[in-house]
Design the sequence.
């Protein structure tokens, strides 16, 4: 499991059919560990954590009119952690939601984060 | 408990503020009453949900409590100042209702929707009309001096008003229950379609009645024609607005909610303004229905082009405050005095309407060959009534001033009961069918 | 009909303005004068658009229409007050913010005093106003002048290098914090009995202002202590904004101040999760509401005679003097003397809360009164002139800053 920005370290699951990419946007810094623990518990490997900033933050960074202090002290989704993970079984999503909620990262709450799943394809190099 | 504390603090703030009153700045009163309506509606909605009733019953109850008949916080002048919010809410909800009608999903159920519309319209109109005609002055004291023909005309008008539904209530309960599925989509499709059917039927009934009741007995086909023109104009202009919205959302997909509120506001004003202009310049009673225009616009955005999903999402995000405002203000406008005076007639009408809708829905679903688990429950979702029915009753007052007032009092009292009972029955049906994801 | 179309027009302009103004990117291609670009990048052009739409010119936003739009303005003021207050979450402040607070408030206080005292006499002499109205006008100008807008600092500050970067951060922190003086001083203006038909006392109106804000804050804390979905939070937020703003206006108090108190209570007593969501919702309205203020302040502007323009000149001079003296005094031992001498020139950017204060005064007192007209003209001219020059001055103060995004 890697926490370096933009790099994926770790083992990808062997089963490449029906693969999905799991994206979890975490808006609260202190909940990232809870999210990662839930993924570990489900034996999800090849996880990457990327740090980012919300669009509002970047736009507001130009000229905040009345919300300058909020930027200075860092509020309002100023930092977003994006957890990327390949998911071999779609059926893991339901237990994942439950585990995340148990770890305090309830994805039903938009202030905590968002979870989405994209179908993924891992094409093989020509001739292999 | 914490909500009760909040309620007590709001009540104290209101009492202190109105006690001190030193001549408020312009716009202060409607602004803070609108705020109170939102917060108290929120508290009442949660309180009533705790006993299993739909939240809109809580909003209505909060409005009733704040209204002129009880606490008087929303007095008649204040309600007048907030009227534009009410109209805005109606138009916005109509946009939302149109956006719920997804052709791809409805196509498979067009037969069922058609049969439900036909059966409930015919059975409700005929049976309620027949009961009124047979009961005569025993039910409607003002009918004592009417001839048989005149009595038939009054019965027909009440029968047509009984057909009208409330798309706003239906949509609010569906949203609150987070209901998704064929049953909910069918219910909304039927409810919206029946509103259009009611307008046409009412125009025909009104023209016929005027012919029967006026001294010279001439049939005023002009009015019926005018209504057809209004409906066509409403649908065409709504479709045009929908195309423009669709284009705009595709190009600039942010701030959609504010755009929609602005659209609702402008459509309402332009519809009323055009009606006034045509009346003043050509003396024609044109009445463009903002509701119809907005339903058509919402329908077009949802089904034409690629911006339907973004549109629906934006509508959903801001619909709760709009619902709370609309239903709390609707609760404040419930006429308790009228209900107290005419409760026997009102409850008879409610019973006649409810039983005929339940029977007709069951029959309609059976004729359409519907085998789903909800086929016996459709009727429970069609009991809601509001908005447009009151408008129809007021049109009767305008056309028949000699007995229209008493007619409207009884009809509005019955609508008030339906407005309260309808959402409860609808939530029950959605839960029984299993499409309600939230309780 | 006209009211609704005006409301739709103003909303459309506010939306378009929030999208196309204040940003580097969309206007990066604007060529020509640096001054023109400064005006466009700081949204000041909306004052002129408002003036054009107002009764002296096109008449779309005439006085009757503006009265009809009062609830929208009340809501806007309330929104900004809440947004301002909800940022004051003391437990999240780090050492930098804590150490910057006192100097920021001292410099703003000095500016407020340097503007208020001379203007009390200037208004009395030039407009022949009573003692009470001179006090209202002078204190409002003091409040408006004490605040520093973020625009010039945000436009130029990010291109600063080396020591200039640290100074830019300090200046932005001061600009973040010194709005407190503007909000509190203007809140106090609304405690003067003259604004309440000479009834009650300063103490009574002060207690009501603070009490109203605190109780509304506790209402929000109580209602949001349950698990609420985002749409329900929006409902509570709108309810609070309408109620708080409406109640304040009902009592001729400042919605800006009352809701700032509400925001501060919410910031310090709410759960972190709720607070983040509320902040996120409020920030979305930041620019749209500001453009709305600029438009309506411009529409209610009745430019009145050369004498008021002379007063505007005096206001600019006093504000510049105040900023220089205030910073020199407040940052002793914090900033090197050579920098401290001209540091105040980096804080001349004007707008934001100053415009909100003017709009608030227009809301609680008749638009046609001489004091409102004079304050409006003085502050608007002050904002326009300041926004022409301040980016260049910030650039000079920061020394190492590169030129602004070039055409």
Sequence:
């Amino acid at each position: 499991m890697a926490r370096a920005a933009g790099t994926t370290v770790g083992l990808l699951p062997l089963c490449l059919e029906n693969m999905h990419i799991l994206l979890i946007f975490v808006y609260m810094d202190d909940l990232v560990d809870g999210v990662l623990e839930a993924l570990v518990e489900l034996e999800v490997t090849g996880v990457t954590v990327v740090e980012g900033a919300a669009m509002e933050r970047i736009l507001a960074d130009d000229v905040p009119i009345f919300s300058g202090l909020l930027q200075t002290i860092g509020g309002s989704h100023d930092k977003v952690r994006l957890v990327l993970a390949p998911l071999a079984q779609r059926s893991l999503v339901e237990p994942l939601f439950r585990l995340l909620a148990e770890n305090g990262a309830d994805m039903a709450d938009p202030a905590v984060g968002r979870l989405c799943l994209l179908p993924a394809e891992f094409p093989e190099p020509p001739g292999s | 408990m914490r909500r009760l504390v909040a309620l007590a603090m709001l009540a104290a703030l209101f009492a202190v503020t109105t006690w001190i009153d030193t001549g408020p700045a312009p716009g202060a009163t409607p602004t803070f009453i609108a705020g109170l309506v939102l917060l108290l509606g929120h508290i009442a909605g949660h309180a009533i949900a705790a006993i299993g009733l739909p939240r809109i019953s809580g909003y209505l109850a909060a409005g009733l409590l704040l209204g002129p008949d009880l606490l008087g916080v929303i007095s008649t002048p204040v309600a007048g100042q907030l009227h534009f919010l009410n109209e805005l809410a109606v138009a916005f909800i109509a946009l939302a209702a149109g956006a719920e009608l997804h052709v791809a999903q409805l196509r498979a159920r067009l037969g069922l929707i058609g049969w439900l519309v036909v059966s409930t319209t015919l059975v409700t109109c005929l049976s309620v009309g027949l009961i009124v005609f047979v009961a005569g002055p025993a039910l409607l004291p003002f009918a004592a001096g009417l001839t048989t023909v005149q009595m038939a005309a009054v019965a027909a008008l009440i029968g047509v008003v009984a057909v009208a539904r409330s798309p706003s209530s239906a949509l609010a309960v569906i949203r609150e229950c987070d209901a998704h599925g064929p049953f909910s989509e069918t219910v909304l499709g039927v409810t919206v379609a029946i509103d259009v059917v009611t307008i046409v039927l009412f125009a025909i009934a009104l023209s016929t009645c005027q012919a029967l009741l006026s001294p010279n007995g001439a049939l005023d086909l002009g009015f019926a024609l005018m209504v057809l023109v209004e409906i066509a104009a409403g649908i065409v202009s709504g479709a045009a607005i929908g195309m423009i919205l669709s284009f705009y959302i595709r190009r600039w997909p942010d701030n959609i909610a504010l755009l929609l509120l602005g659209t609702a506001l402008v459509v309402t004003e332009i519809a009323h303004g055009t009606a006034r202009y045509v009346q003043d310049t050509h003396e024609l009673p044109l009445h463009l229905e903002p509701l119809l225009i907005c339903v058509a616009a919402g329908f077009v955005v949802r089904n034409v082009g690629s911006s339907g999903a973004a549109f629906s999402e934006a509508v959903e995000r801001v619909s709760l405050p709009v619902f709370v405002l609309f239903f709390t203000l609707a609760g404040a406008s419930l006429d308790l005095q009228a209900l107290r005076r005419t409760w026997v007639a009102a409850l008879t009408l409610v019973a006649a309407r409810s039983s005929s809708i339940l029977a007709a829905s069951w029959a309609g679903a059976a004729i359409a060959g519907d085998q789903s688990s909800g086929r016996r429950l459709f009727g429970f979702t069609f009991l809601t009534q509001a908005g447009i029915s009151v408008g129809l009753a007021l049109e009767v007052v305008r056309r028949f001033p000699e007995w229209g007032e008493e007619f409207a009092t009884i009809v509005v009292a019955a609508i008030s009961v339906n407005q309260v009972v309808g959402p409860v029955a609808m939530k029950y049906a959605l839960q029984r069918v299993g499409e309600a994801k939230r309780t | 009909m006209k009211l609704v179309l005006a409301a739709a027009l103003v909303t459309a302009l506010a939306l378009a303005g929030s999208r196309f103004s204040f940003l580097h990117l969309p206007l990066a291609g604007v060529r020509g004068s640096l001054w023109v670009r400064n005006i466009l990048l700081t949204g000041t052009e909306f004052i002129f658009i408002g003036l054009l739409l107002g009764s002296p010119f096109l008449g779309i936003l005439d006085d009757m229409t503006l009265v009809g739009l009062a609830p929208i303005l009340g809501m806007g003021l309330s929104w900004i007050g809440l947004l301002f207050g909800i940022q004051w979450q003391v437990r999240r402040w780090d050492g930098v913010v804590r150490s910057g607070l006192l100097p920021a408030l001292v410099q703003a206080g000095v500016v407020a005093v340097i503007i208020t005292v001379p203007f009390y006499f200037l208004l009395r002499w030039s407009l022949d106003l009573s003692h009470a109205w001179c006090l209202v006008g002078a204190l409002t100008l003091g409040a408006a002048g004490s605040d520093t807008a973020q625009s010039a600092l945000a436009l130029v500050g990010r291109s600063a290098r080396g020591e200039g970067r640290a100074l830019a951060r300090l200046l932005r922190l001061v600009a973040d914090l010194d709005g407190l003086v503007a909000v509190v001083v203007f809140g106090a203006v609304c405690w003067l009995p003259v604004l309440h038909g000479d009834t009650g006392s300063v103490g009574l109106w002060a207690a009501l202002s603070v009490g109203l804000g605190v109780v509304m804050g506790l209402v929000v804390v109580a209602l949001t202590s349950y698990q609420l979905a985002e749409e329900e939070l929006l409902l509570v937020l709108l309810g609070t904004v309408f109620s708080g703003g409406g109640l304040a206006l009902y009592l001729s108090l400042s919605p800006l101040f009352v809701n700032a108190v509400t925001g501060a209570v919410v910031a310090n007593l709410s759960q972190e999760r709720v607070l983040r969501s509320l902040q996120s919702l409020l920030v979305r309205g930041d620019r749209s509401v500001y453009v709305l203020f600029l438009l309506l302040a411009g529409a209610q502007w009745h430019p009145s005679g050369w004498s008021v323009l002379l007063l505007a000149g005096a206001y600019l001079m006093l504000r510049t003097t105040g900023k220089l003296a205030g910073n020199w005094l407040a940052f002793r031992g914090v900033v090197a003397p050579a920098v401290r001498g001209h540091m105040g020139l980096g804080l001349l950017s004007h707008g934001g809360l100053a415009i909100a204060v003017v709009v608030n005064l227009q809301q609680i007192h008749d638009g046609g009164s001489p004091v409102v007209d004079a304050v409006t003209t003085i502050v608007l001219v002050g904002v326009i002139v300041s926004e022409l020059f301040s980016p260049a001055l910030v650039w000079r103060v920061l020394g190492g800053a590169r030129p602004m995004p070039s055409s």
Remarks:
- Residues 2-81 of chain B form one domain.
